[in-house]
Specification:
Blueprint lengths: L11 H8 L6 H5 L6 E4 L3 E7 L8 E6 L2 E8 L18 E8 L10 E5 L2 E7 L21
Length: 145
Amino acid sequence: MPIIKWAPLWDPFEESDKLFEGMPSLRQVSGFVPSVDIYEDKDNVIVETPLVNIKPEDVEISIENDVLTIEGKAEKRSEVDEKNYYRKEVRYGSFHRSVALPKAVKSDGAKAAYEDGMLKITVPKEERVKAKAVKVEIKKKKSKK
């Protein structure tokens, strides 16, 4: 068993981070998943996601069966890999996010806008015919005498 130096403010997570230094993390290998905010107003379902330093032309948006999918790629701008990093948390690579929308929507009316690193997707709500309840009639058999 290795000896661990005692420190009054010991951080066990820092020690475990040291074990994995130099190894590519899953985040670096598989890209990232952007966070989303989903809300609605009277007529629309609105989805917002921060996509800082990502070109809007590198983003694809689709809606199928009331599921919104956002995917694209964030490219690394510098080719210098010889930096002496203390921490590397800036995300690069491909991203993909699918979310079920909380209401029925008209996908052909969707609009997307990109401003100051924030992607805002507005999709009009759709009124769908609600299921109709049918009461089952129970018939009694006539008794034989």
